[in-house]
Specification:
It is built from one helix and eleven strands. It is mainly beta.
Amino acid sequence: HLRLSPFTAQLDQLTIHGLEPPSAPPFVHIDRITVGVDLAALLGGKVVLSNVSVVNPSVYIHVDHAGHSNIPRPPHRGPSKPWQQRLFSITIDHLRLERGVILFNDRRIRLSASGGRFTFAMSYLPSAVGHDRYHGEVAWKDMEVAAKRWIPFPSSWSVKFTIGRQGGSLDQMRWELPHSWVEARADWPNW
């Protein structure tokens, strides 16, 4: 269901399937997305989402012991194609997530958050068979998060990561709190 009004669009019951079996939950399901477009930026030739509200998003990621996952992969490119393919890049001036759930294998994380400038970009890095990878960059400025039983608190963060069939890495993570900051890096060679 898609409803359009001036500079705002609403999409209900969005489901994106990955490589999961029919008996598993879908890769992504969102009950409702409301998107506001920045008209001034649009007239200037850029698409910038001014406000995005996501209600009841759920993301399901399953990785088995052999490194196979339900994350969809782009089709294999021939040798004449670029070595890296940008899958998407998005910028949102204000993002609100309401009653979200991330299910990673059997671990469930509930999440609600709201904040300023959000950016997310994902690229596909093809290589030898079975060694293809994804590289992602996510950042969120001036946001408040409420997860588990935490009291909401303000922060900004950015993450660069790589995910492959065999494992992955947190290439860079920086979390800025009101009076301090944390940086981290991690590798996990096997799922």
